[in-house]
Automatic annotation (TrEMBL):
InterPro entries in UniProt: RNaseH-like_sf, RNaseH_sf
Protein name, UniProt field: RNase H type-1 domain-containing protein
Taxonomic lineage: Eukaryota, Fungi, Fungi incertae sedis, Mucoromycota, Mortierellomycotina
GO terms assigned for molecular function: nucleic acid binding
């Protein structure tokens, strides 16, 4: 225990020395600062240390917009895109999103899309990063469904998030009637613009 405390004390002292050296260098580079330059207020030294989270190496990923797909998942998306087009009736795709461990380092957002119209049901699944919310995971599922369908195929996407459905109505279907300011200030405006295109 004493050894651990001694090591922590030495680390803090080393950080203080580095801190003073950086502040001295900043004062030399920016001499115009007023004389009452308070180094403690401008460059506080944190006493708490947070472990640096290093992601574990995994399979290479393919990024399609904000979607992160493994090579296997990207192949399943291409398999769905390559299915025959039949517009006698719209194809129904089911989409869902999920958020687990919010507020922790293990936070994860995943989505899935299923096409039951094929002889063998086709599924696309993946994850997304950035700000974590369940609505974002659901939205990425909707985006994956649109991207996975053959471009000429008429589709209906069924999902269970009312907020995403309402925003789709306002920001995609009725886009021309929505003020540009409301479109640009909406959450995930870029993704909604992509869906509109």
């Amino acid at each position: 225990m004493e050894e651990t405390l001694r090591v922590q004390k030495e680390q803090r002292e080393a950080l203080r020395v580095q801190h003073r050296a950086i502040v001295t260098r900043l004062k030399e580079l920016h001499p115009r600062h007023k004389k009452g330059f308070d180094t403690a207020a401008c460059f506080p030294l944190q006493e708490q240390y947070q472990p640096i989270h290093t992601p574990s190496p995994g399979p290479p990923t393919t990024h399609i917009g904000p979607l992160c797909l493994s090579p296997l998942e990207a192949a399943s998306m291409r398999a769905l895109q390559d299915t025959p087009v039949d517009n006698a009736s719209p194809r129904i795709l089911y989409s869902d999103g999920s958020l687990i461990n919010p507020g922790t380092e293990e936070v994860s957002q995943a989505f899935g899309v299923v096409d039951l119209a094929q002889d063998t049901p086709l599924m696309v699944k993946g994850c997304t990063d950035g700000y974590a919310s369940s609505a974002k995971a659901e939205l990425m599922g909707l985006l994956a469904a649109v991207l996975a369908a053959p471009p000429e195929q008429d589709i209906i996407v069924k999902l269970d998030n009312q907020k995403v459905v309402e925003q789709y109505q306002r920001l995609v279907k009725d886009r021309r009637n929505t003020l540009p300011r409301k479109r640009f200030r909406s959450t995930y405006a870029g993704t909604w613009a992509t869906l509109s295109q």
